[in-house]
Amino acid sequence: MEQNPLYPIFLKLHTLNMLIVGAGQVGYEKMFFILKSSPEANITIVAPWVSPEIKELLSKGNYNVTIHQKEFEPSDLEGMDLAVAATDIKELNQQVQQEAKAKKVLVNVADTPALCDFYLGSIVTRGNLKVAISSNGKSPTFTKRFRQVLEEVLPTDTGAVLENLKVIRDRLKGDFEYKVQKLNVITSNMVKSGGVKCAECPDCKDCPDYEKCNA
């Protein structure tokens, strides 16, 4: 079976600069999902025409988005860390990709996996828990459907679970290996019981694994 060779990373887009070339339907879709996942992302849009959908989206939030309503120029890539070629003009997208590569800027080209340094995968977010899904560019439709499945099955109280796990982790004494072993026990019980409570909660002390987890 062919294996997906991509290595997933989670970028702090509020500390990076991203260029999106194109502000039509393709540009809107790219920007919508980027801002949905990373609302503080620093984005510069370059396009001679900006769709009403993008204007409406930006009017609904205090986003760090700058629009330059003009044709793309290679100089637009100066100071950028990431670029997205999101036009419906194949030749323009290829130009953006070539200029980005020359300037060592990572680039994503809409609907052209062979020209991409990275993909914008489907994402599921539950508080601080974030799951990214990739089909290695084979089928964005499948990743979209799989995202919907995860959104239905993942519990909505994941944020509270993670906060409680952090409290427990911070209280554990010992070296890294010891903490990993303890957290493995706790999270194993969490999966079995469907949740984890803070060590300060009285109910937690009624758990048969309380002494084991908090020794």
Structure description:
The chain is built from 7 helices and 7 strands. By secondary structure, it is α/β, with parallel strands linked by helices. The protein has 3 domains: 13-120, NAD(P)-binding Rossmann-like Domain (Rossmann fold), CATH 3.40.50; 121-154; 158-214. The strands form 2 sheets. Strands 3-2-1-4-5 form a 5-stranded parallel beta sheet, with helices on both faces. Strands 6-7 form a two-stranded antiparallel ribbon. β6 and β7 (129-133) form a beta hairpin. 22% of the residues are buried. Mean pLDDT is 85; it is low at 196-203.
Name the poorly predicted regions: 196-203
Quaternary organisation: single chain
Query: Main beta sheet: strand number and arrangement?
Result: 5 strands, parallel
Number of helices: 7
The percentage of residues in β strands lies in 5-15%
Could you state the order of secondary-structure elements as H and E? EHEHEEHEEEHHHH
Features:
215 residues, alpha/beta, Rossmann fold, two-stranded antiparallel ribbon, 15% strand, elongated
Question: Secondary-structure map with pairings?
Answer:
Elements lengths: L16 E5 L3 H13 L4 E5 L5 H8 L5 E4 L13 E4 L4 H13 L3 E4 L12 E5 L2 E5 L6 H14 L4 H14 L4 H18 L16 H5 L1
Parallel strand pairs: 1-2, 1-4, 2-3, 4-5
Antiparallel strand pairs: 6-7
